[in-house]
Write a structure and sequence with these properties.
12-stranded antiparallel barrel, Porin, signal, 250 residues, single chain, CHP02001, mainly beta
Length: 250
């Protein structure tokens, strides 16, 4: 029986909401959000083949320092992920905060529903510092060598955000670099079309209560001539793109 994206998202949202009260007793209440975007991009690459997508996410506190984040996204038969309709991410994260500094470590499982051999896992870490309305985050995501991604994959990034005083606007941006080993090039190019590359993004968001609206520009150093178009999942959008999104949070 084929699981539709709508049914899976509805089930995931219900599970997140049902789980929230039980875990919220630990330290704080869970957070749930629904986001619609004109394209779903990760590290400068489209995960929805340049099409509009819908995501449901939740952050559930287990203890004061431990949080589990979960997300389900419609991928629109993404060629990058073997034609998967839905991607699910589960990410436990342990964080220590003191004096405006946060040090965090965790893991991320990326699951692609209905497509065997596409799922892969990562180890994550970050250091963040907040001063007033500004925040800087340095992060690293490492995927050990796995058949699903044709080798290993390392993503390093720096991100910053600044809330504009007296307004509901936040400016944000970031720069990243992805590299890794190529044991099986077609699969390795799934996350690194053409090999190692850099990505950057710049956006602005307006948030009022539970509703946020934003626009984000992103691009990569990947050029079409570097990518073998015979590789289906490498033919997704990886160039410059302006994405608009709407997010409703609890």
């Amino acid at each position: 029986m084929r699981i539709t994206a709508g049914r899976l998202l509805s089930t995931a949202a219900g599970a997140f909401l049902a789980a929230a009260p039980a875990h919220a007793q630990s330290t704080q209440s869970a957070q749930v959000a629904i986001e619609a975007a004109t394209d779903w991009r990760e590290r400068g690459l489209s995960w929805s083949d340049g099409k509009a997508a819908l995501g449901v996410s939740a952050s559930i506190p287990i203890t004061y320092d431990l949080t589990v984040a979960a997300e389900a996204v419609t991928l629109r038969e993404s060629s990058r992920h073997g034609g998967a309709d839905v991607g699910i991410t589960i990410a436990p994260r342990y964080a220590l905060t003191s004096g405006g500094w946060t040090i965090a470590a965790g893991a991320r499982g990326n699951i692609f529903v209905g497509r065997a051999g596409m799922s892969f896992g990562e180890i994550t870490g970050e250091v963040a510092h907040t001063i007033g309305p500004a925040q800087l985050v340095l992060g690293a995501d490492f995927a050990p060598s796995q058949k699903a991604i044709g080798g290993s994959n390392l993503h390093l990034e720096a991100q910053g955000s600044l809330g504009i005083p007296g307004t509901a606007l936040t400016l944000y941006g970031g720069l990243g670099h992805t590299s890794g080993s190529d044991r099986e090039r077609p699969r390795a190019w799934r996350l690194r079309p053409g090999g190692s590359y850099t990505d950057h993004h710049l956006g602005i968001e307006h948030a009022r209560g539970p509703l946020a609206v934003g626009v984000r520009y992103s691009d990569t150093s990947i050029r079409s001539r570097e990518v073998d178009r015979r590789i289906a999942f490498a033919s997704g959008d990886f160039g410059s793109r302006v994405v608009a999104y709407l997010r409703l949070s609890s």
